[in-house]
Amino acid sequence: MATAENPFADPGLPPHEHRAQDIDEQAAKRSERTVALLFVVSMIATVGFIASYVAIPIDKIVYIWPIGHISALNFALGLTLGAALFCIGAGAVHWARTLMSDEEVADERHPIEAAPEVKAKVMADFAQGAKESQMGRRKLVRNTMFGALALVPLSGVVLLRDLGPMPGTKLRTTNWKKGVRLVNQSTNLPLRPEDIAVGSLTFAKPEGLEEDDEEFAEKIAKDALMLVRIQPQNIKDKHELSWSHEGIVAYSKICTHVGCPISLYEQQTHHVLCPCHQSTFDLSDGGRVIFGPAGHALPQLHITEKDGFLEAANGFEEPVGPSFWERG
C-alpha cells in the first residue's frame, strides 16, 4: 500500500492463474504429444539433412519461387537443418509454457556469499524445479527430446565430408614409372648423364609434364626430383648405389616433414637441407634423416640410362612428401 513515506510501494504479484494443463490431465497429454511430435519432426529433418547431403548432386540447380534458381543441395540442407533446429527449440518452448511450472515466486536479495540455509534452499528449489519440469513423469517428451538432441549433431559430422574426398591411392602414386625420361626443370630438355656434374644439384620433372598444364602445381608437388652426382665409392648405402647411374642419384625434392621443397645442398657432406624446419638428409646414405623433425628418409627413384638419356627404371617404392598415418 502506498504511503507518504513510500509512494511507490511494491504492488506484489498478481494472483496465479492455472493453465488448462495444470487442472486437466487430458490437456497436459495433448501438450505432451505436441512436444513429442516436434522432437520427432526434428529427428526426421536431421535424417533428411543427411540423406540430402548424400543423394543430391552438388551441381544440381532447381527453381524455387520466389528465390529463383539456386543449388538444390544448399536449399535442401538449409531447409532440413533449419527445421531440425527449429523443432527442437519450439518443442522446448512449448514444453516450458504448457507443462513446466509457471508460478512466479519472489525471492529476497541476499549477500554474495550465501549462508548455509540459503544454499540449502537453492538446492531444494532446484530439486523442486526438476520435479515440476516433469522430466521423469513425461517420459514421451523426455525420450523424444533426447532422440532429437542426439541426432542433430550428426548434421555437423556429415559436413566433415566437405573437408575433401578421401585420397585413395593418390598419396602413394606419382607420374614416375618405367621408361619416363628425366627432364631438366630449368631448360625443359631431357637430361643426359653428362649434364650432371659432380657436386651440382639439378632439379628434374617427368617428361610430358608442362608448366602450362592445368594440374601442373598439383603434380609437381609429388613429382619434383633432385639429382646429384656422387663418386660411387662415396655412396654408403648399397641399395642406393644399385639404383643410381654412374653415381647419379635421384631423390624426391619434397621434404618428408610437411612437404616443403628442398633446395639447399652441401657438396662436401652430400647433405641437403629443408629451408622450412631445417630437416637434413644424407644423399650418400639412402637419403636418411640426420637432423630435424622429418620422420622418414627421402624416397629414392631408381634411374637408368637409355639411348643416352636418363629415365626412370620404375616408380617410387614408397609415398613421397609428408608422413601420414597409413604410411609404412
UniProtKB/TrEMBL annotation:
Q: Does the entry feature the keyword Disulfide bond, yes or no?
A: yes
What taxonomic lineage is listed for the species of origin? Answer: Bacteria, Bacillati, Actinomycetota, Actinomycetes, Kitasatosporales
Which gene is the coding source of this polypeptide chain?
A: qcrA
Gene3D superfamilies noted in UniProt: Rieske [2Fe-2S] iron-sulphur domain
Sorted keywords for this record are: 2Fe-2S, Cell membrane, Disulfide bond, Electron transport, Iron, Iron-sulfur, Membrane, Metal-binding, Oxidoreductase, Respiratory chain, Transmembrane, Transmembrane helix, Transport
Basic and acidic residues composition bias: residue spans: 15-26
Recorded hits in CDD domains, A to Z, give: Rieske (cd03467)
Q: Which InterPro entries match?
A: QcrA_N, Rieske_2Fe-2S, Rieske_2Fe-2S_sf, Rieske_Fe-S_prot, Rieske_Fe-S_prot_C
Q: Provide the protein name.
A: Cytochrome bc1 complex Rieske iron-sulfur subunit
Function as written in the Swiss-Prot or TrEMBL entry:
Iron-sulfur subunit of the cytochrome bc1 complex, an essential component of the respiratory electron transport chain required for ATP synthesis. The bc1 complex catalyzes the oxidation of menaquinol and the reduction of cytochrome c in the respiratory chain. The bc1 complex operates through a Q-cycle mechanism that couples electron transfer to generation of the proton gradient that drives ATP synthesis.
Q: Which segments cross the bilayer?
A: 35-56, 62-93, 140-160
Q: How does it sit in the membrane?
A: Multi-pass membrane protein
What cofactor is this protein dependent on? Answer: [2Fe-2S] cluster
Q: Where in the cell is it found?
A: Cell membrane
* Annotated segments matching region Disordered: 1-26
The UniProt record lists the Rieske domain at 222-312
Q: Does the keyword Coiled coil apply?
A: no
Q: Which family does it belong to?
A: Belongs to the Rieske iron-sulfur protein family.
User: Record's Pfam families?
Assistant: QcrA_N, Rieske
